[in-house]
Amino acid sequence: MFTIITGAQFGDEGKGKIVDLMSGEYDLVVRFQGGNNAGHTVKVGEDVYKLHLIPSGFLLDSRVLIGPGTVVDPGVLAEEIDMLAEGGIELDAKRVGVDAKASVIMPYHIELDGLREAMRTEKIGTTKRGIGFAYIDKVARDEIRMADLTNKERFLNRLEEIAPSKEAAIKELGGDPSIVRDEALIDKYVKLGERFASYITDVSYEVNKAIDEGKNVLAEGAQGTHLDVIHGTQKFVTSSCTIAGSACANIGVGPTRVDNVLAIVKAYITRVGEGPLPTELFDDVGKQIQEVGGEVGTTTGRSRRCGWFDLPLLKKAIYLNGYTSIALTKIDVLSNLDPVRVCVAYELDGQIIDYPPEDTSALARCKPVYEDLPGWDDDLTGVKEFADLPQAAQDYITYLEEKMGVSVEYVSVGPAREQTFKK
User: Fold this and answer.
1) Which has the closest alpha carbon to 232: 9, 6, 3, 5?
2) Residue 417: is its pLDDT beyond 90?
3) Which of 75, 123, 368, 422 is the most buried (most CB within 10 A)?
4) pTM value?
5) Catalytic residue ranges
6) What is the total count of domains within the chain?
7) Looking at residue 125, what DSSP letter applies?
8) CA-derived radius of gyration, the chain
C-alpha cells in the first residue's frame, strides 16, 4: 500500500503527529520535498521531538527515507541524529536512508538567501536557510548531490567548478564571497560526507521494491498545499511542489501505485510569514486561538497568523491533491468560542465567489462570507472517540465533511499520540 500525506492549508497542520500515529502500520516513511525550512513537533509521553528533516516514523521503528526531491543541509541532519541519540534513539544507516540524488544545501546557498531577502522591497518571508537557492541550482544543474558529498575528490572538484559563479553572485548582492571557499566550512562538509556515506541509497528503488513485496509505504510532504511553488499564493510560497502528485515525481513512483491520499487539515487556519489569509483574525478571538493552539513556528519561532476555517481554499486543496480522506487536527483549540465560524465563500469586488481566484493580489482583496455554527465549552483534550465529543463539536466535524465532500478519518484533540482517534 502506498499512501501520501500532505498539508491542505499553509503548513503547520500537524502532519508530524499524524505520521507518527500512522507509521506503526508502515514499513517505510519517506520525505519527498522541501528541506529544513519545514518543521514538525511530535510528543510521545513526556518527550517532545522537534524535527526539520527526518520523518517521525522512526519512533515506531519504520525505516525512514529522505527522497531525491528534497534538499538536505547535512549539518542539520547530523544535529537531529545527535539530538535523538542523546534521548536514547539511535538512527544508523539501517534506520535512515538519504537518496544519492538529493541536493546539498551549501553555506553559499544560505548566504544568498539572506542577502536576497534583505534586498526585497516586499518580503516573501523566507526562512533564510538556503532552500530556494539549492532548488535553483538543482534546476540549473549546478547542484552538489549527496553522492558528490560522500566522495571527497568529486566534491572538491565540483565545488571548484561552481565556486566562481557563486562568489560573483554573493559579491553582486553585497555579501562576502569568501564563504564559498572557506576552508573550515569545506572541511566540515567533507567530514559530514564521510559520516553519511553509509546512509546513501536509491529511494525510488527501495520504495518500488517495498510495494512489489506487499509492504506499506507512507510518503510525507512538508509545508502545505497553498505554499506550492506552482499552485500556491505566488510569490508567498515555498520553493518546491507540495501537492500529492509531486510525491510520485520526487520519489520516483508511478501514479498508478498510489492507494490513498490523506489531507491534514487544521480545524481553523494559520499562516506563517507574508501572503494573503482571507479569514485572518485581528481581534481577541484570533489571540485566543493563537495562545491556546500554541501557534508558534517549529522552524522559524515566528507567531502564526490565525483565522477561521476557509472552505474555498480547502476546496482547491482537494482538487489539487485528490484526497481520499482527512485528518482534522486541533479541534480542541476551538473550545470556549461561540459561534464557531466557517468561511464558505468570498466577496471579491462586489461579486460572491466560492473558489479562490488565481491571482494572489485578488485573493488578498477577498472578504470572507461566513456561516456560523454553535460553539462548545467542554475541554476536549481527554476525549478518546468521536461519540464522546460534545454534540456541537460533532456537528462541526460533520458539517465540514459535508461541505468538503471528503470523509474525516482521524480527529486530533491534542499534541500527544493518544490524543488522536479514528472517527
Assistant:
1) 9
2) no
3) 368
4) 0.93
5) 12, 40
6) 3
7) -
8) 22
